[in-house]
Amino acid sequence: MQSIKTIFLFTLSLGILWSSHVCGALSWQTNYPKALTQAKKEERSLLIFFSGSDWSGTGMRMKKEILDSPDFAKALGNQFVFVEVDFPKHSELPPKRAHQNEKLKNRFQIEEYPSLVLIDSSEREILRLGYLPESGAQLGEDLIRIVEQDRKLCKGLEKLPQEVDKLKELYQYALELTRPDALDQVLQVGCETGDRFFLLERYRKYVEDGMMYCQEAKKIRKSLLEEESHDTYFTVALIDFQDLSKRTSKLESRDQAVEPLEEYLSHFKETDRENVWRIEMMMAQFFLETDDWNRALEHAETAFESAPDAMKPDILHSLTYIREHV
């Protein structure tokens, strides 16, 4: 009888401990070196919460409604080590802790509160977030996904695959994690495969970096347009237009900005009727923003004529507005 009672009490205590672990709030440490040592030992990531516990309204709300919620704890389980780095204004921290927190703020260049910084056990930053109006469960799931993506990306970078689909997967991870170093590595190998997706991404990057007219960018653009694919041609035209439209003051004329779109229409107007009205409206909007109302009207009228019936009322509204100002 005694043994049955002992087993019952042991089982009950396990249930209570399990319930507390899964459903209760997480334990946020304040000693960063101790937390880091634990993370290294257990091979876990660290989630650092930079807070203003007695003055930041969004920080207090985030802590209470999201980070201390049972759903957040349940989603993350024991997969992270949690650290709170606080900067109160109406109370004083112990000097040693205040000094530690100031060093961490400077190290991670924290400029707003609240901030969440996710790092691995080697102190490499994976991601940082501000206040997010989402549930504890959703944030927890997002963090689990991000850590898994980071793990796969790091493993993939050790020896980049040659298969295009796998390279695209790694490239997407690098985009979501904002890893420019990884993007460049994957992009280089991807371009070597000659895949159109990676060539377009390389060309886009050249354009965004102000290198549209460099020799390599010209070479990639030429090879892409030689495909005579209206999808590829359309993407290149949009990349060019978006860049040129941002720097009209440096162009000889406004017409130069819309040349890529005009060029696309000259090649594919008859075979890509679906995009004609969209392109015409892009040009109408561009000329509207640059105060060339007559040119805006011209393109808006063409867009109205070529648009599907479902879109005509919206375009007519824009047309009416432009006509009132011409």
Main attributes?
326 residues; alpha+beta; Glutaredoxin; Serine Threonine Protein Phosphatase 5, Tetratricopeptide repeat; 2 domains; 4-stranded mixed beta sheet; 15 helices; disordered N terminus
Number of helices: 15
CATH superfamily of the largest domain: Tetratricopeptide repeat domain
Strand order of the largest sheet: 2-1-3-4
- How large is the share of residues in beta strands? 5-15%
Total beta strands: 4
Number of domains: 2
The CATH C-level class name of the largest domain: Mainly Alpha
Q: What profile does the largest beta sheet have? A: 4 strands, mixed
From the spread of the alpha carbons, the general shape counts as elongated
- Spell out the helices and strands N to C: HHEHHEHEEHHHHHHHHHH
Structural class: alpha+beta
| CATH fold naming of the largest domain | Serine Threonine Protein Phosphatase 5, Tetratricopeptide repeat
Distance between the termini: 97 Å
CATH architectural name of the largest domain: Alpha Horseshoe
Query: If you average the pLDDT, what whole number results?
Result: 90
Provide the gyration radius in Å.
28 Å
Fraction in helix: 55-70%
